């Protein structure tokens, strides 16, 4: 009788444990790259939202550097692990849409995007690729970078644009936005057409692509700074924060601190992480336009939770930007 009692209790405990686990929703946040300060901030927002919701787990997992095949592999692994929803920063639209995302949709796993959405072409082919996009309006971010540059150099000049990948839809929209702001034209052809004198602005070369490699971005920055006088380059506009995410940025830029102050060379960069604001304070940059990855991570988990409860969600949620200069660096992100 006693053995029967203990056996019954053991079975009940096992069943109770199983039910508790089943009630926990596991949502995955998949960045373009794990070690980027921007995406680490999105992880923090994800974890915060999961704690607030309770019975929700945030799984943050991505490639160590931007690699669409590795990102696709990670997504497939998470599908096999049985996650209840996925938020992904899309590194390459067509490849993901035809591989791991296709698998997830077949299994009915809710998909949303954050920071980087699928391309318009991919969404036109399959409007059901994702339920929602959460992030910055990338075109407007690019325009804001261009407007900051215009404020520093009203007469225009030769510029170089830094970007990550030539096949990244969100970064291409930022580049397009920079060109639109400087040229004064809202023209879709600007996505692959270099500025050539419009309103006094000219691109010295095609964008410098670093493929998400911080060291490569800094090498490009170092080379441009060393040649800016000889080649008459007035500004560098980076549509991501790559150069400023390594502390060696200071060593590269400090020799040009006076030139930056005199606006002989202007540095305008996307993102406003804490370390980037220090560079503004120390006058090692002229301006930054930032996003809010922490809010993106929070909103992503909140949205996946709503989807899990069969509640409606907005198709697009734009997170407000921050505008930082050496004059307002201490307060620009406090809102």
From TrEMBL:
Residues 1-22 form the signal peptide. InterPro entries: Bact_Solute-Bind_Prot2, Peripla_BP_I, SBP_2_dom. Transmembrane segments: none annotated. Its main location: periplasm. Residues 27-311 form the Periplasmic binding protein domain. It is found in: Periplasm. Keywords: Signal. SUPFAM superfamilies: Periplasmic binding protein-like I. This is Autoinducer 2-binding periplasmic protein LuxP. The keyword Signal applies. Belongs to the bacterial solute-binding protein 2 family.
């Amino acid at each position: 009788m006693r053995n029967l009692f203990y056996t019954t209790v053991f079975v009940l405990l096992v069943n109770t444990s199983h039910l508790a686990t089943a009630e926990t929703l596991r949502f995955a946040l998949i960045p373009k790259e794990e070690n980027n300060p921007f995406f680490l901030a999105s992880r923090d927002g994800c974890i915060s939202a999961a704690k607030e919701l309770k019975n929700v787990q945030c799984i943050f997992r991505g490639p160590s550097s931007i690699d669409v095949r590795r990102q696709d592999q990670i997504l497939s692994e998470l599908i096999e692990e049985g996650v209840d929803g996925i938020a992904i920063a899309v590194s390459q639209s067509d490849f993901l849409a035809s591989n791991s995302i296709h698998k997830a949709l077949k299994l009915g796993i809710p998909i949303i995007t954050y920071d980087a959405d699928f391309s318009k072409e991919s969404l036109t082919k399959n409007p059901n690729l994702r339920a929602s996009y959460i992030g910055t309006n990338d075109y407007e971010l690019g325009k804001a970078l261009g407007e900051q540059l215009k404020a520093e150099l009203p007469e225009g000049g030769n510029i170089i644009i830094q970007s990550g990948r030539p096949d990244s839809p969100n970064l291409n929209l930022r580049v397009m936005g920079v060109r639109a702001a400087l040229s004064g034209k809202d023209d879709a052809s600007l996505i692959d057409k270099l500025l050539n004198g419009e309103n006094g602005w000219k691109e010295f070369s095609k964008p410098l692509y670093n493929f998400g490699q911080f060291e490569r971005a800094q090498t490009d920055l170092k080379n441009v700074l060393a040649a800016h006088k000889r080649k008459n380059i007035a500004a560098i506009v980076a549509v991501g924060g790559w150069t400023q995410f390594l502390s060696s940025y200071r060593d590269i830029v400090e020799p040009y601190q006076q030139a930056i102050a005199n606006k002989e060379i202007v540095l305008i960069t996307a993102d406003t992480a804490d370390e980037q604001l220090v560079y503004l304070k120390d006058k090692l940059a002229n301006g930054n336009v930032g996003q809010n990855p922490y809010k993106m991570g929070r909103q992503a988990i909140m949205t996946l939770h709503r989807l899990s409860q069969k509640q409606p969600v907005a198709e697009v949620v734009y997170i407000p930007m921050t505008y930082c200069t050496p004059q307002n660096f201490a307060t620009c992100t406090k809102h």
